[in-house]
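Two records follow; treat each independently.
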Amino acid sequence: MKRIFVDTNIILDLLERREQFFQEAQELFTLADKNEIKLYVSALTIANVHFLLFKHLKMEARKVLAKFKVLVEVLPTTDKILDLALTSNLKDFEDAIQYFTAIDHDMDILITRNKKDFKNLNLPILTAKEFINR
């Protein structure tokens, strides 16, 4: 079974029902719900998503995340991952943490809408739409 790391923006597409990207995010998470793929996120992602959802949903953000969390496995952000991110050539520190979390946990693919920030790396980087169309 494919081990797929999901970036924060894909989760927000799903949970905020972002019009342009919701359908492909929903299809990706439906595959996980059917046990056809295994999805992973970082602990940092859960914190970031809560922060962003809280602006609109207030205390309901926790309930939304609790329901969402059954679809994914949350991976820890370790000292090793932070050191790798701090010394990497990736411009965006949050993206570096995501990437090295995926690498440290032997992910097969990283799914994001922000491919431009993940260039020339040792892990396939796809959008949700690209993955679904494979």
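The next record belongs to a different protein.
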Amino acid sequence: MKKKFKIEVDCANCAAKIEGAIRKLDGVQDVSVNFMTQKMTLEAPDERFDGILQEAVRCAKKVEADSVIYID
């Protein structure tokens, strides 16, 4: 499954750090964090997607405490 989310991130460097950290999570097939559009695209197996997404949110907070990923 591949989904896009709105993300608030302060700078391009922070976006790159968040992307790198999420990419290392077990089960993540692909991730992209774009500072200019304030969007994150996450691709992971359907059956594990929700759990991986929650891990990604926690991971982003560890890297950049001010970041926010909006999950609808």
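Discussion point: The longest strand covers residues 2-8. How would you locate this feature using only the token line?
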